[in-house]
Design a protein that fits this description.
Layout: E1 5-6, E2 9-10, H1 16-22, E3 31-32, H2 50-53, H3 58-72, E4 80-83, H4 86-94, E5 102-106, H5 112-119, E6 123-127, E7 138-142, H6 154-166, E8 170-174, E9 195-200, E10 213-216, H7 219-229, H8 236-247, H9 249-272, E11 279-281, E12 284-288, H10 292-300, E13 304-305, E14 307-308, E15 315-319, H11 326-334
Parallel strand pairs: 3-13, 5-6, 5-7, 7-8, 8-9
Antiparallel strand pairs: 1-2, 4-10, 9-10, 11-12, 12-15, 14-15
Length: 336
């Protein structure tokens, strides 16, 4: 989650510096459960030295688009744009829709969509009412939702995309966590228009630092995005790693099963500690409980960082521990 640190409070996941400021006496090393990033990184082959020494080859970038289209169910490579993380794509996408109109974000969710829309000149509303999105020029749905894990049915998404198409608007379906969901992606429906799908690479493949994300939409929209990105938008090392990972279907299937087992294991620990799990995905669990702030502090004092939400004090998101972190997490939860 992107954001800022104010007065020592953590406004996003992944900030260990902020955690140390809040809990200066916590034991090291920190266990970071504040993000939805997989604790298992893809075991790629060694990155060739020339991937660092040379500018990325356009042919390799095109090859990655072909592989990504196949992996994500896009109609073709022409429907895919690759960029250095979906974060970079958000303001570019918002700028493609008529500025000065209304943007509506189905909330609570990832805060950067609303921020990007405001930067692009939109009047932004955040709502939990799906029907209100139809009145917007730019509608945003994170599906599965972050942090609740909620799913919007495909029929509702396609109906909203049709409404956007009729007025030259755009529905952005952020499918950052679709890799671990049983829901159906709408990436195969983008040719109708009015719809853009975002896919994140780093979360499921445990490589957020690689900075890679994809936009999937009608080729006319993709061409505009790629024009804004310019040449060499994806690094040579990212082209190498992602090309292998997205084509590795057996690893992907096995990892889905592993993450599901780990999520069930975390659920059992939380339940045993008297903490009910309200939702999430198999990359993170979502808690809605009046004790959420107390749990955040209890774990923080033990060097375990979770994701709290200042604007929603009863909410807490907890990611999956790494292989060597389970014993500390279990001990901390038993100490509640």
């Amino acid at each position: 989650m992107a954001g800022s640190e104010v007065g020592g409070s953590i406004e996003h996941g992944g900030s260990l510096a902020g955690a140390r400021a809040l809990f200066p006496h916590a034991p090291e090393p920190w266990i970071d459960l504040s993000t939805g990033i997989s604790p298992y990184s893809y075991p790629h082959s060694p990155v060739p030295g020339n991937a660092f020494a040379r500018l990325p080859e356009p042919a390799l970038a095109q090859e990655l688009k072909v592989i990504a289209a196949n992996a994500y169910g896009a109609p073709s490579a022409a429907h895919v744009a690759a960029g250095p993380g979906t974060q970079i794509l958000l303001p570019i996408i918002a700028s493609l829709v008529r500025s000065g109109g209304l943007a509506a974000v189905l909330s609570p969710t990832y805060a950067e969509h609303a921020r990007a829309a405001k930067m692009a000149g939109f009047d932004v509303t955040e709502t939990d009412d799906l029907d209100r999105l139809a009145s917007a020029d730019l509608a945003v749905i994170v599906n599965p939702n972050n942090p609740t894990g909620g799913i919007v049915p495909e029929s509702d998404l396609l109906a909203l995309a049709a409404a956007m198409r009729a007025k030259r608007g755009l529905l952005v379906a952020d499918e950052a966590f679709m890799d671990v969901s049983e829901a159906k992606s709408t990436a195969d429906m983008v040719d109708e228009g009015g719809l853009l799908v975002l896919r994140s690479f780093g979360k499921f493949y445990g490589m957020a630092g690689l900075r890679l994300g994809f936009a999937i939409s009608h080729p006319d929209i993709i061409a505009k995005i790629e024009n804004r990105l310019g040449p060499w938008a994806v690094s040579g090392p990212a082209l190498h790693v992602a090309g292998e990972a997205l084509a590795d279907i057996p690893w992907r299937q096995a990892m889905r099963a592993t993450l599901g087992e780990d999520a069930a294991r975390l659920d059992a620990l939380l339940t045993a500690a008297g903490i009910p799990v309200a939702g999430g995905t198999s990359l993170f669990r979502f808690i809605r409980d009046p004790r959420a702030q107390a749990l955040f502090r209890h774990l923080g004092e033990r060097g375990i960082l979770t994701r709290r939400f200042q604007e929603r004090p009863d909410d807490l998101r907890i990611g999956l521990p790494g292989e060597n972190d389970w014993s500390r997490v279990e001990a901390a939860l038993k100490a509640i």
